[in-house]
From TrEMBL:
Residues 1-18 form the signal peptide. This is Putative transcription factor B3-Domain family. GO terms for molecular function: DNA binding. Transmembrane segments: none annotated. The keyword Transcription regulation applies. The keyword Transcription applies. It is found in: Nucleus.
Length: 94
């Protein structure tokens, strides 16, 4: 299990996560909204300028559109390599 926190929406996966994705030849994952338990099928996109950089595509933007982010909101991600499930929790700024 890998745990990471991203504070900016269009950042690549952290290096340790990208290495695991490359090693396991993952091209997709299921994003799980921890709040609503909604599932989003997402492509894992390789940056054309650097094959070691990976991003979440497709379903990621559906997830973003379903949320009401405020300045200072954070996301917590937990990715399980074996099941290809990415659990996402939105932390609202208080």
């Amino acid at each position: 299990m890998l745990i990471c926190i991203w504070l900016i929406f269009l950042q690549p996966f952290p290096k340790n996560v990208s290495e695991k994705l490359i090693m396991n030849d993952h091209s997709s994952l299921t994003l799980v909204d921890e709040e609503t338990e909604t599932l989003y099928e997402c492509a894992i996109v390789t940056d054309p300028r650097d094959e070691n950089l990976r991003y979440i595509g497709d379903g990621w933007f559906e997830y973003i559109a379903s949320k009401k982010f405020a300045v200072g909101s954070s996301l917590i991600f937990i990715y399980t390599i074996e099941s290809r499930m990415l659990y996402v929790t939105l932390i609202e700024r208080t």
